[in-house]
Amino acid sequence: MRKKLTILCSGLVVYMAIYSPAYAQKTVVHKKTTTTTKTSSGTAIPNDPNVKIGKLANGLTYYIRKNTEPKNRAELYLATRIGSLMEEDNQQGLAHFTEHMAFNGTKDFPKNEIINYLQKAGIRFGADLNAYTSFDQTVYQLPIPTDSAALFKNGFKILANWAGKLTMDGDEIDRERGVIVEEDRQRGKNAQDRMSKQLLPVLLKGSRYANRIPIGKIDILNSFTHDKIRNFYKDWYRPNLQAVIAVGDFDVNAVEQMIKENFSELTNPENPRPRLAYDLPDNKEPLIKIVTDSEQPYNVAQVMYKQRGTEVKTTADYKKSIMYGMINSMLGARIQEITQSGKAPFIQAQTGYGQYQGGLVPNINALQSAAVSTTGATLGTALKAVLAENERMSKYGFLQSELDVAKKNITAGNEMRLKEKDKTSSASFVKKYLSNFISGSIIPSTEYAYAETKKALSEITLAEVNALAKTLITKENQVIVVQAPEKEKANLPTEAQLIAILKTAGDGITPYLDNSVNKPLLAKKPNPGKIVAERKIEAIGVTELTLSNGIKVLLKPTDFKNDQVIFNSFSKGGQSLANDAELQSANMVELIPQSGVGEFNPTQLNKLLAGNTGRAGAYISDLYQGFQGSAAPKDLETAFQMAYAYATEPRKDAEIFNKNISDSKVVLANKSADPQSVFADTVQAVMSSYNKRGMPTTLADLDQVSLDKAYAFYKDRFADNGEQTFVIVGSFDLNTIKPLIETYIASLPTLGKRQNFADNGVNPPKGKVSKTVYKGLEDKASVEMLIHGDYEFNAANNTQLEAVKAALEIKILERLREKESGVYSPQVSLSVSKYPNAHYYFGVSFSCATANVEKLIAAALDEIAKIKESGATADDVSKFKSEEQRQIELSLRNNNFWLNYLTNRLKNGEDLLQLSQAKERLDSVTVESTKATAQKYLNEDNYIRMVLMPQK
Question: Is the pLDDT of residue 32 over 50?
């Protein structure tokens, strides 16, 4: 078990307590200030002719497009321009509550029948079937197979039931109250939630948005009378505010007819309530808010320069949007360069122009800059350093060399999108049409967008970009917020000091200097090796090569994507081979490949590879080391060159390494403030039986880390690559790729040694273990239940275990959420591994009120006992088989699936043709087989119970 240490950046951007991003819409515009952008000219951008857009007599809009990626599938959406902004004061939270009720009974599908019916058809609740509510929209998502005419037809019936036929049964409403209260508990009742509630009145000052957070008010959710939600549904769920979006493998005319048959009968109210649009007022003086919390682990400052924007409608707008993208790319590269240096006064930082707070308020954009500092005392310096980059951009602009890099990268992406135009997923098209309906955004064809992007890139000059960059720092509409630990309150900059930082950030700045290295990635090509053997595995379309240095390569050419090749490799060893003296350094060995390669640091490497899609890297995990990469076919040589360079020319960069260790120490020093971090560390410690090699990293561990030792360990792991196995999947020609394999993979250094990983005894504890952690301020508990054990790892056993997991998942959701109303989204997990010892883990986890912990744990154990006693129900077995079969159908045309499938079979020494017996294994799942599996593996002899409770 490898110890994970991650610099969390959740505090970088102020998190809003909403459940989906808000999309732009027309607004009631207040008096504008000098920050208003000028109206641009240009030609109107036409809609893609491949999408059929229509409107029924009742005002319902529809979008229909035939698309065969994936085959025999469609994405059906019901989009509504209905959100929390439409609620009355006594209805706060009922837009979101209505969305929940759509799954609790309709005219044609009583109670939970929608979920039950779709699960039997192989559609997963949550992963596939889902919905969300925001300020100005509620959207229902239904991915559905099209190879069953009856099922596909019923998909539109379900959408129509959501649109106008909810039953709103009183008992169902009352049962759902607890679920939504638990959703609020699961998402909130933490430092970020408490601080957001203080920040929202500032970020959304003077607007209706500040008083209409979608989750609503708990007291209203617990007490509203049934007529309030029924009235909300009657008033707002109407066809002139709704759209049906259908994209998939079907006949367009037939789908149009199904829409007419199902939705034409829906009517609008005789006296419809007006759907008002709401705005965010301007502010002349800066809005400032400093908030602290005892559970906040980081010191974060953020500055926003708001300005009004408009939807892209014309070619001039489109060109400007590309220029904004260039500015963000170039500014982000400068921040990354500073961050990676040893002189950065911040742990992390970011700055860029885009939708204000992720699009909370339509047509409000902002230059938003954030910095995370080591202490409250250094937060002002950290913020000033980020703002200085904004000022440097505004005063001196960008360099032509920076613009060239940005243009090359945009060109590469533009070319790839054109090449993949017939491989674009239906879900991708749906999102564009959804945005068009909600906000009126453009939906040009791929060909049109390609040509217009190419034209814009040829016209955009450095002077134009620099002139646009000067408009981003506004004199008005400024917002400054600080989030910090309570213990740092006295050390934070004051409001006056924050304003002074804004005014003086540009003092003494000088023009940016480009540090590009103009050298080839490899000084010279390696001496190539040879392919010494070749074997065809026709059943799965794979060719296996054996190279002269002992490396094996499995090649699977596909047509699933036109412009994608992906690969990875592995050989045994990994960090398991680190001795005690080098263990802590080996645990941080990932910093070596993160430092760049050869003579190039990461920033220089990105500049060198501008416009080139070839990328690769090296990794060292617990048990393996190897390479990973991807590229368009034309750039595959570059990806292979990078893999070769990471093996032979790793970079030893003291500045980058030491900066990361220093930042990690800050993270660890503050981590104990966050209850979830403390709980996660406890879980990790318990699950490793407190074995030092499996324990969370400590400050004392970091003091033992040495760059020399980490670098030496990395070099040792890649000194002998003779047992590496590469798997390469994608759009390539065998005859073209073979010379590249001989040049860059067959030439990797080898020593002819036999290697294996070590079993260091990092195992979960045997017997029954109970652990309770007391940390946190609010009424919120987190529960982790695990049943585990040794077993015989094979495909047959794994399929039976998956079946039991799927059945348990259904029953836990039904019991804990639907019956007990005690949780929002309980999780049931299954993890299996073969090495170093074959072991399985069943997990049940959830958050809940502290008073309900024992009751819900008992309920979960009761459901486990029922499956052991009777097995899964016949219905649940049927649902499992349908879902698995549908997922297999989708996976078979996915490059990532094949990459992982082949890699895992090889790692585990399994039959590569295992997939061909998938149907037989599914057929072997029965009520009796699940009963036997549950009795054998859901054995509470090895049962771990861990609970996080508020501090006493």
Answer: no
